């Protein structure tokens, strides 16, 4: 299981040499990079959340950005779901690479790794990254 924090995302993005090279090559300013990273971190938190958006709104938004229900299929226990919905911000990439799979009944999806059942209490979630 992976744990993301906005600070971790920003730090790892800044220390990766290939990314630093591209930032330099395209002349991206620190201000623009910070804006992008904040938006990207917020989107990661949003699509990994359990927000219960109205189904029609979630489906409409998923044509542009990754929504909780759209991304839920990616974390499904079913193999077909695991091989879909790879996008992190814009769903155009899944559309272009034919990996889109919007779940018919998102709330019925069982999440996690097949055969692994864990109950997460608040305490377990807090110590999980360690």
UniProtKB/TrEMBL annotation:
Query: What species was this sequence derived from?
Result: Trichocoleus desertorum GB2-A4
Sequence intervals crossing the membrane: 20-46
Matches recorded under Pfam families: FA_hydroxylase
**What keywords sit in the KW lines?**
Membrane, Transmembrane, Transmembrane helix
The protein's superkingdom reads Bacteria
InterPro entries per the record?
Fatty_acid_hydroxylase (IPR006694)
- What name does the UniProt record give this protein? Sterol desaturase family protein
Domain named Fatty acid hydroxylase: residues: 7-97
């Amino acid at each position: 299981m992976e744990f993301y924090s906005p600070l971790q995302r920003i730090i790892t993005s800044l220390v990766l040499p290939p990314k630093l090279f591209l930032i330099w090559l395209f002349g991206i300013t620190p201000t623009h990079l910070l804006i992008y990273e904040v938006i990207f971190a917020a989107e990661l938190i949003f699509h990994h959340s359990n927000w219960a958006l109205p189904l029609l709104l979630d489906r409409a938004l998923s044509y542009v950005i990754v929504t909780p229900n759209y991304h839920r299929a990616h974390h499904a226990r079913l193999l077909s779901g695991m091989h879909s919905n790879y996008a992190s911000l814009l769903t155009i990439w899944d559309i272009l690479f034919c990996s889109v799979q919007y779940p018919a009944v998102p709330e019925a999806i069982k999440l996690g790794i097949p055969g692994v059942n864990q109950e997460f209490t608040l305490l377990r979630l807090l110590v999980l990254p360690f």
